[in-house]
């Protein structure tokens, strides 16, 4: 009888702990992020076109809760997505080249999140700004590189480069935070991202973040 009472008491304590809302003010949180981007088509006035396939990317982030409502942190993400491109030749605008491949993208951003009404289920507004790297994996030529090694002396080799760009990036998002326990949460949201490029209107991203508070 005493054992049964002890089991019931432990269950009630565990249940009450799970029911308690998280206290996040003054604490850090870490997230493992999934980022799904839908397919997208881009065109220019001169006939150049780019079709991007949908893709699931990954990321991780860290942030500090200055209060129950405001979090400031950073996040890194990466993905590889297939594409089909049509390019217009420089000598003859009527002549086009078609090719496909896989491009790699990565981001490093400062993030902010505001939660108007904290609770077990909390809508939030988020924003981010930082750096975006895009590598088309298209061969752009090779060049010789030499460097001094203290053991072997001068060492020379060939370095291959690819076409790519580094741009400023921005994101705005909305979502809902679900508390699973006093330390664990799941965050579901939608973000729209921009690059500092005139020919790019931005992309829509759906994300699910799995995180913990410590």
Question: Could you list some keywords that capture this structure?
Answer:
214 residues; mainly beta; Porin; eight-stranded antiparallel beta barrel; 1 helix; 10 strands; 68% strand; flat
Structural summary, described in words:
The protein has 214 residues and is mainly β. It has one domain: Porin. The protein contains 1 helix and 10 strands, in the order αββββββββββ. An 8-stranded antiparallel β-barrel has the order 1-4-5-6-7-8-9-10. Strand 2 and strand 3 form a beta hairpin. Residues 1-19 have low confidence and may be disordered.
Give the SSE map.
Layout: H1 2-19, E1 28-37, E2 40-43, E3 49-52, E4 55-65, E5 70-88, E6 96-114, E7 121-149, E8 153-179, E9 184-195, E10 203-213
Antiparallel strand pairs: 1-4, 1-10, 2-3, 3-5, 4-5, 5-6, 6-7, 7-8, 8-9, 9-10
The largest sheet is: 8 strands, antiparallel, barrel
Q: Could you say what the CATH topology is called?
A: Porin
Radius of gyration: 24 Å
The dominant shape is flat
Give, in spatial order, the strands making up the sheet with the most strands: 1-4-5-6-7-8-9-10
Strand content: over 45%
Estimated helix fraction: under 10%
Helical stretch count?
1
- Kindly report the average pLDDT value: 82
Structural class: mainly beta
SSE sequence, one letter per element: HEEEEEEEEEE
Measure the end-to-end span. Answer: 38 Å
Number of strands: 10
